[in-house]
Write a structure and sequence with these properties.
The complex is a heterodimer of chains A (558) and B (450).
Chain A lengths: L3 E6 L3 H12 L4 E4 L15 E2 L10 H17 L4 E2 L3 E6 L4 H13 L5 E4 H7 L7 E7 L2 E3 L1 H14 L3 E3 L2 E9 L2 E9 L14 E11 L5 H8 L5 E11 L7 E4 L8 E5 L2 E5 L3 E2 L10 H11 L11 E12 L16 E5 H5 L4 E6 L5 H16 L24 H4 L4 H11 L3 H5 L7 E3 L4 E2 H11 L3 H8 L12 H6 L7 H19 L5 H17 L26
Parallel strand pairs in A: 1-2, 1-12, 2-9, 5-14, 12-20
Antiparallel strand pairs in A: 3-8, 4-8, 5-7, 6-7, 10-11, 11-12, 13-16, 13-17, 13-18, 14-15, 15-16, 19-20, 21-22
Chain B lengths: L2 E8 L3 H12 L4 E5 L44 H4 L8 H20 L3 E2 L7 E4 L5 E4 L2 E2 L13 E6 L7 H10 L6 E6 L11 H10 L2 E6 L5 E5 H9 L8 E5 L7 H12 L2 E5 L6 H16 L3 E4 L3 E6 L5 E8 L2 E12 L10 E2 L4 E2 L52 E3 L9 H4 L2 H22 L1
Parallel strand pairs in B: 1-2, 1-16, 2-13, 7-8, 7-11, 11-12, 16-19
Antiparallel strand pairs in B: 3-6, 4-5, 9-10, 14-15, 15-16, 17-18
Helix pairs in contact in B: 1-8, 1-10, 3-10, 6-7
Classes of the chains: A alpha+beta (558), B alpha/beta (450).
Amino acid sequence: MTDTEVVVVGGGSTGCGVARDLAMRGLDVTLVEKGNLTHGTTGRMHGLLHSGGRYAVSDQSSARECIAENRVLREIAGHCVEMTGGQFVQLEGDPDEYFEEKLAGCRECGIPAEVLTGQQARAEEPYLTDDVKRSIRVPDGAVDPFRLCVANAASAERHGARIETHAEVVDVLADGDDVFGVQVRHDSGPGKREHARTGERERITAEYVVNATGAWAGQIGELAGVDVAVRPSKGAMVVMNCRQVDTVVNRCRPKGDADIVVPHETTAILGTTDVEVEDPEDYSEERWEVDLMIDELSALVPILREARTVRSFWGVRPLYEPPGTGTRDPTDITRDYFLLDHAERDDLSGFASIVGGKFTTYRLMAEEIADHVCAELGVSASCRTADEPLPGSEDFTVLREYMDEFGLRSPVGRRSVQRLGSRADEVLSTDGPNPVLCDCEAVTRAEVRDAIDQSGTDLNAVRIRTRASMGNCQGGLCCHRMAAELHPEYGEPQARAALDELFEERWKGERHALWGEQLSQAALTYALHATTMNRDRDPADGASVEYAAFDAGGADGD
Amino acid sequence: MAIEDDVAVVGGGIAGMTAALAAAREGATVRVISHKDSTLRSASGLVDVLGYPPRSGGSSGDSDASESPAGDAGPLADPFEAIPDLPEDHPYTAVGLEGVRAALSLFDEAVDGYRGGHTDRNALVPTHGGTVKPTARYPASVAPGLASDPRETLLVGFETVTDFDAPLAADHLRAAGVPFEVRGVTVRFPGAFRADARVTRLADALDADERLEAGDDPSGVSTSLPARGALAAVVKPRLGDAERVGFPAVLGRHETPSIRADLEAELGAAVFEVPTGPPSLPGMRLEGALRGACRDAGVRFTTGDPVAGYETGADGEIAALRVERNGAAIPFHAESVVLATGGLVGKGVDSDRESVREPVFDCHVPHPADRYEWFDDDAFGDHAFARFGVATDGDLRPLDARGDPEHANLRAAGGVLGGYDFAAEKSGAGVSLATGRAAGRAAARQVSDS
């Protein structure tokens, strides 16, 4: 007997998708992830739900998959998707031939595509430059990768899967030429993450192990003694303070850096660059990348030049090409995905890796892997992930007056319900008052507590579930409020450690936006946390204080 | 009719109002020109002088790693001992120890309701984050809460006042080793306030002692009580042996002394406030007190319009400020000018991707050329940006890139000055008072000399 039938390594979109798919087919699944869900590439992308238009010239099979999956996700993940629509914008001077190729490509792939005149394009997206010649309208959208990934994990759990975050694989267990499980190191636990709780190692035996770690697949492959030559490629993304555009704006020209703006929740995200890196966790985040985004994309949307950014972040694409292909420029490496069956490839049974691919088609990739695993294990259940809505996207209308029902002012109630979808009732029905904790993103106490119930003391896990601390103030006004919700369920030292961790994580991205308004904002955050709260010199963290040496109050009293 | 004053002060925070007050007391006619709300709304209302020695990193632009990481250096028990040893470019060095002491005397005499002047020692005040911080002067409403006072303490938080979690703060204070017993409870503020009611709304209710719904009594009859009594009634059953009770700083905008007296009478325990973040009532009360002192001294205020430019005379001195109002630039003539527009937070210092500047007079602001050297990688690291501001001569006149005064009759005070990290040192209000007083006096004396 093994502990579980299948171990899935990796808690990104692919891993969570595989776990959900297999669990829905009745398999016993354990997913292990070394950080939070979305910790790798999934949580570090621009949130574009591809129409397929981007690949309509260069890679039509990917384009066809994208439009098909785009339609599927609108159905099964409505609460994660905003169908903004998108445009491929041709500026004066951009090549006509490419525009025509793009249009023809979209039509060949079944992507609805409509040509807009420059005037029509600007009527739809008023901040586009005057230099617009024309554009192609396509059904691009925005998707919240955090919410989608978490919903997949929640669905897997509902179908009996075990999800372990903060559980790093330290060994792949093999008996000769057969993999039979993994050994993981839990940061704390097993179970929900809890700061200051001692972790332990655990051997998890399984009939099959799926390596769904994306850019980290080479590292897991190495533990199993197989070579998985992923070529991680970093991309920079710049988060703006508001939605300068309401549709996805793509520059219509052959591949290039800094050619897309995606409206995402309250922000717009500028992307991106494409630079190969050695290590998916240790690479430079550089000033030129931020400047390039702003300078290039302000040719498309001029107000971006003077607009405020709140942070930047980088992600690594899990690019892969079969051995011997030898593509030099990472921008030329295919975006297609590959299922590496190590039995066939390396004479190592019970183990497969999935590499390459893109977020929009995560479900399709997961289906193919699940099919493969089922075939290996002799299971004959079929895939249902395209038909069954994710938790939060079940039969649901937002027409009800949630605001009154839950005592929330209307913009707060609307935002909460958009995020929670069909879980709104369950989450927002609380006994006590439900004040807003994060003013920028209108996140209430009930949502934060719901996220803590799911993820323990990890406030970054709370952040990705709720968007709390992701707005203009980057947590300056709410980090400590979020941490306070951990207490008294968790102890004060745990709340303090969790706060410090979230605060540093917010700072990490905000460092790339430190000029103008955002530098002023950062200086305010620094002042509130260092001056008013004295968190930088907290005596609870440092040397003891000789209280008797200080003023204990005057004899005059009041 | 032309607007003419002896001294014009640009900026209405602690530094600006102190400069105005000091100049007025020298006999000058003084006008404060302020555009937006001052940052006092975000400040704790504590008057820090120097809580920790500055990091060894030193002057702006030095990106060397700090040698004294946060947390391991204890707070200074006596801030005045450390002032003479501060670096050359620290604003306190320009005014000297006596300048700091004189400014505190001015403050103590001009502003009612503050404590701490009986000793040179810093006080340790419990913060809403559950730590303690060193400060030199504190509002009377904060005084009974000092951490060196051994009385048993109850902290009371409100369900909807999210910046202060009393049970967590109590546990944190215990971890900080405070010499007293401390418990925290969370209660519902009496009355039917919305969950997102601002603290200013609760303060107004206490100020006016509004009648609030007190809920149903055991017989099912709905009753109402005055706010102060209702609040005391909620807290009293939880008091235990506590000799003092701390609330987040919501105890009125104007009537804080009588609110505290009423609560103390009902509870039989001392009542104090724990300063919180914005909107900060102690900060707003301090702003009101300083403004009152200025008005009493004859200072005039022009608020709501920005200074958009200035005119110079033949000698290069500033002759007039151009205040933008309804699209027109109105000249405000002055013999001498004090720049007290604040730092990065107050937007007296501004920046873009390439550079850092002082926007009103375009004074030189020293800074590293590469913006990636403006910050440290740790959130509480040694940030160059925290020391951004103008450099001055010993007379607080901003210096240009060559080291010469920008204008012979322009002085700077408070956050717009560079060379100190007020957040790390806990020196913000002290520097504003000391440099505000010195700049205001010097400005007025320059007028009387001419």
